[in-house]
């Protein structure tokens, strides 16, 4: 029973951390975190060395689900170009949800401004995995310079996420078409025929 209680306490802390850090930023205090989670500070410190570790653990726990929201699954057939554009179409759809604040990993990196912070390491890994995925698809799609194109795609993704998260831009109809133009310029041109999702007909 003690093991179950411990797991439940940890889950409540990480759930509360994910919600609070994403909504209000990483500056929230331990008392607010523990009160929201319904956990005593003593219990928190039995599980984590401090708030920094809670933030890192909450971001790490969220990473697989966040990636699954964006990436096409193995059952989603398509060309490498279509698989890249799928990510941007999903980003557009997610940006319309109530309470959207942009990419949680980019937000953490920008707020923390500390490469040595444990949460910064988790966030960098999450961003690198997305860039690596772009790189793989760019190679498969015959891009002129896959590594450079992957970096450019990250600029579009993160810039769009930041602007939408700040409420100064709406992404639907903008982000996927911008990414498509970049793919054209990078040598991953659309095939002759009907247009792709997120693009006008050829």
TrEMBL record:
InterPro entries with a match to the protein in the record: Homeodomain-like_sf (IPR009057), HTH_TetR (IPR001647), Tet_transcr_reg_TetR-rel_C_sf (IPR036271)
DNA-binding region (UniProt annotation): 29-48
Coiled-coil zones: none
SUPFAM superfamilies documented for this protein: Homeodomain-like (SSF46689), Tetracyclin repressor-like, C-terminal domain (SSF48498)
Annotated ranges, domain HTH tetR-type: 7-66
UniProt entry keywords in alphabetical sequence: DNA-binding, Transcription, Transcription regulation
Protein name per UniProt: TetR/AcrR family transcriptional regulator
Organism: Streptomyces hintoniae
């Amino acid at each position: 029973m003690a093991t179950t209680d411990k797991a439940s306490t940890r889950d409540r802390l990480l759930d509360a951390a994910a919600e609070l850090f994403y909504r209000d930023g990483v500056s929230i205090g331990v008392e607010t975190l523990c009160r929201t989670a319904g956990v005593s500070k003593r219990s928190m410190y039995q599980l984590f060395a401090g708030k920094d570790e809670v933030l890192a653990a909450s971001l790490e726990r969220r990473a697989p689900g966040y990636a699954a929201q964006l990436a096409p699954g193995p059952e989603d057939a398509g060309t490498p170009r279509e698989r890249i554009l799928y990510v941007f179409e999903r980003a557009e759809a997610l940006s319309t949800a109530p309470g959207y604040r942009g990419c949680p990993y980019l937000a953490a990196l920008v707020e923390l401004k500390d490469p040595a912070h444990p949460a910064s390491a988790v966030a960098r890994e999450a961003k690198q995995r997305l860039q690596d995925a772009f790189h793989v698809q760019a190679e498969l799609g015959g891009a002129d310079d896959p590594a450079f194109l992957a970096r450019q795609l990250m600029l579009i993704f993160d810039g769009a996420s930041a602007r939408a998260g700040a409420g100064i831009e709406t992404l639907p109809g903008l982000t996927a078409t911008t990414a498509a133009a970049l793919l054209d310029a990078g040598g991953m041109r659309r095939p002759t025929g009907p247009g792709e999702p997120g693009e006008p007909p050829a």
